[in-house]
């Protein structure tokens, strides 16, 4: 197993995107993963506190996430501190139960939505003109 993992790691290093590797060498961390981390943490906090999920981050924090992705925002230590603060904020919301989402999912509503989406998909398959 160890030899297989070593070979896999060496292959990954050899085939890795050179720009991304250079950026990681400059920042000391994988800035693409860091941007995803913050997008997910912020989206999770947003869902808990507002009940909304903005997948498209434009007008919210897209510019900041872009700067993080380019390695222009934080050092590794600053990144870890900011991530810790955001994680602590999420933990506080959960611990104090100040979230706006329901305690448990509405299973019947979710099942009804799933059935509706599958049926719609089947209709589209039978009538490609519905795709518009």
The structural class is mainly alpha
**CA-based gyration radius:** 21 Å
Q: State mean pLDDT (0 to 100 scale).
A: 92
What profile does the largest beta sheet have?
none
Outline: extended
Helix share, percent: over 70%
Distance between the termini: 50 Å
Counted by DSSP, the helix tally is: 6
Order of secondary-structure elements = HHHHHH
Strand-residue proportion? under 5%
Features:
single chain, mainly alpha
Describe what you observe in this structure:
Helix content is 70%, strand content 0%. The chain contains 6 helices and no strands. α3 packs antiparallel against α4 and α3 runs parallel beside α5. The chain is extended and about 50 Å long. The protein starts with a helix and ends in a 6-residue tail after the last helix.
């Amino acid at each position: 197993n160890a030899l297989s993992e070593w070979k896999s790691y060496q292959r990954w290093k050899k085939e890795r995107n050179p720009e991304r590797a250079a950026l990681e060498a400059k920042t000391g961390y994988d800035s693409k993963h860091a941007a995803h981390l913050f997008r997910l943490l912020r989206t999770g906090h947003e869902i808990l506190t507002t009940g909304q999920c903005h997948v498209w981050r434009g007008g919210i924090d897209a510019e900041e996430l872009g700067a993080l992705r380019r390695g222009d925002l934080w050092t590794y230590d600053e990144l870890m501190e900011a991530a810790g603060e955001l994680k602590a904020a999420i933990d506080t919301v959960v611990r104090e139960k100040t979230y706006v989402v329901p305690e448990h999912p509405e299973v019947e509503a979710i099942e009804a939505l799933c059935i509706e989406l599958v049926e719609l998909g089947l209709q589209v398959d039978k009538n490609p003109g519905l795709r518009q």
